[in-house]
Structures are given as structure tokens and as C-alpha cells.
Design goal:
Distance between the termini: 41 Å
Number of domains: 1
Shape: globular
Helix content: 25-40%
CATH architecture: 3-Layer(aba) Sandwich
CATH topology: UDP-N-acetylmuramoyl-L-alanine:D-glutamate ligase
């Protein structure tokens, strides 16, 4: 079978825990300046619990599948019930699981997401099998059977697959959307030559500053460097402040659409990136891509889970209203 897109990255089983007994405390000892805290040795009541699936490869695959694309996912799970649950979620979204590998040694990745009454969250992650998607496990000939790949974070042993994957995709004429994780960003200058194989790059503003060495606040300098490295479109997300996009010739600024309700932000970045890419795959404009990406992210924010509530092909990209977009020459 020939696929429209294959997503590559992590797959996890997720559990969300809510408790009104959790407290948010401001303290500089915490990296973020705040901590979600509970008393040591105490037994605490949980107000609600949600079992879902996650991981960037799974989250983005669900979007593409629900958008009507022939989609497969390349990831690794354990030989356990958690891995089975992930496969069932993918099949339910119309995603092929032929390329999902099973690890006999390591169990499926698992995340525990703890929510405080104020909406703050902390995530405990066991990466498990997802960290062992090794080059020796993957026959890159699968690239002959797809038009696009959507590559997300590849960490630990999986990191070794990253460079060969992009190089082979380039040789095969496969288009690449890349949302690099911390492991890829830590490559520094070694990452730059690989960006010439990328058709859509997704980074947030902090990551762009880290990668380029330019000031966080000077977007023009950030884009000038990124445009010189990336052969296609660069997308810089700014959380609740929206998104900036450049194709090297023009520059777009956009806000966000208003979600009907806010439940959880987990997976919103994956929802935006896969929605944006879906529009480009349909040969839509940058404006179309921003609109679909923003609406898909808003849909994700309104549900528990990193891939719940995502838009289907039947849903209007304007479901939550139109995002304000401005365009100017770069």
C-alpha cells in the first residue's frame, strides 16, 4: 500500500489524575517557579481519572487518519495491554499499524499527568519501548511507499534513526515535516545540514532562539537564519500568542481561535502541526494551514487526552471561528 503520510516517533499509554487536594506553591527551587504539591505520606482522594493514549507519533497519526489521509505510524510499543490499547486507538482512527514494532524486552511507554484544581499539570513519563526504535529494527525501504513523513522526537536509542531517516527520505523524494524534540535540538550545528531536507519545520519560539543563537524577541533574525537552513516552510509557535510562519519570501502572523472550553493542553502542539500539514498536503495556502492547525489545536484543548476531539475531514476548519492572519513580504 502507498500511504499519504507516515508519522514517526513516540507512543504512550496515558492516565490523567485530578485531585482538589493538590496545591500549587510558588518557589524558585522549582524549574518553572511553581510546584504542584501534596503532603508526603498522605492518602489523597482522586476526583476523576481518564485513561487515554498519547505520544507524538500517535497524536499526529490520529489527525491525519481522521482527515481522510492514508496514514501509517512507525513507533515501538511493548508486548502488553498498553501496546494493544494504542493499536486499537490507531485502528479506530483509520491508521494502519503495520509498521508498529513490538519490543519483547521493554514495556510500552506510560505517562501519568497530574492536574491541580487551578489547571496546572505535571507529567511523569516512563518512555519504555518508544526509546528503542533502533536503526537495525527499521527497514527504510518503507519510504518508497509514502509521499510524506511527519517526524517527531526520537530520543535515547531512537536518536540514531534520525539522520539516516531524513537522508533516505530526501533521496527517495519524500516530503518531510519535522517537529524536533529536545534530543534533536541538542544536536546543535549537526542538525543544520539536515534541515535542508525539511519541507515544514515546527519549533516554538524558545526552541528557535536556542537553535539559532538569536535573541528570543527578535523574530526577524530568528527567521532569517531558519529560512536559510530550511528548504520549505518554517512555523514558529508562540503558545497562547499564536504563530509566526515564513516561506522565505513572505511572513505570516496569526493569533489563536477561541476553544469552546479548556480542559487540558496536552497534545495541542501535535494537533496544530498535523492540522497545518494536512492543509499543505491538500495543496492549501499558508492561511488555510494556519486555520486548520489552530482549529485542530482548539478541538484538542476541549478534551481529556492528547488525541481526543481532533477534527475530522467533515468538520469545518472554521468550526471555532476564523483566526486573524496578517501577511507581509519578508
Amino acid at each position: 500500500m502507498t500511504y499519504d503520510v507516515i508519522t514517526i516517533g513516540s507512543a504512550t499509554r496515558d492516565v490523567y489524575i485530578q485531585s482538589r487536594d493538590l496545591k500549587v506553591i510558588k518557589d524558585r527551587k522549582f524549574i518553572t517557579g511553581e510546584g504542584v504539591c501534596f503532603p508526603a505520606g498522605a492518602k489523597m482522594d482522586i476526583d476523576d481519572i481518564h485513561f487515554t493514549t498519547g505520544g507524538s507519533a500517535v497524536n499526529t497519526a490520529v489527525t491525519f487518519g481522521q482527515q481522510g489521509f492514508k496514514t501509517a505510524v512507525l513507533c515501538k510499543v511493548g508486548d502488553d495491554s498498553r501496546g494493544a490499547a494504542i493499536k486499537e486507538r490507531l485502528k479506530g482512527a483509520g491508521v494502519a499499524t503495520k509498521l508498529v514494532l513490538t519490543d519483547k524486552k521493554y514495556s510500552t511507554g506510560y505517562s501519568v499527568i497530574i492536574h491541580s484544581p487551578t489547571g496546572e499539570r505535571s507529567i511523569f513519563v516512563y518512555r519504555g519501548a518508544t526509546s528503542f526504535l533502533k536503526p537495525k529494527d527499521v527497514d527504510l525501504s518503507f519510504l518508497k511507499n509514502t509521499k510524506w513523513i511527519y517526524v517527531t522526537h526520537l530520543g535515547k536509542e531512537s536518536e540514531k534513526l534520525f539522520a539516516p531517516l531524513l537522508k533516505e527520505a530526501n533521496m527517495k523524494g519524500v516530503k518531510v515535516a519535522l517537529n524536533p524534540g529536545s534530543t534533536q535540538l541538542k544536536m546543535g550545528k549537526k542538525l543544520i545540514p539536515l534541515l535542508d531536507y525539511v519541507d515544514i519545520l515546527f519549533v516554538n519560539q524558545e526552541e528557535a532562539a536556542h537553535l539559532t543563537g538569536a535573541s528570543y524577541a527578535k523574530k526577524e533574525k530568528l527567521f532569517k537564519k531558519l529560512n536559510g537552513w530550511v528548504r520549505g516552510i518554517t512555523v514558529m509557535t508562540k503558545g497562547p500568542d499564536g504563530v509566526s510562519v515564513s516561506d522565505g519570501e513572505s511572513h505570516w502572523e496569526a493569533g489563536v481561535v477561541k476553544e469552546p472550553k479548556f480542559v487540558d493542553r496536552t497534545g495541542a502542539g501535535d494537533a496544530f502541526g498535523s492540522g497545518f500539514t494536512s492543509a499543505i498536503m491538500r495543496r492549501g495556502t499558508i492561511e488555510d494551514a494556519i486555520q486548520l492547525g489552530s482549529a485542530n489545536a482548539a478541538a484538542d484543548l476541549g478534551q481529556w487526552g492528547a488525541n481526543k476531539g481532533l477534527l475530522t475531514k467533515k468538520d469545518s476548519p472554521n468550526k471555532f471561528g476564523k483566526v486573524k492572519i496578517t501577511k507581509k513580504a519578508f
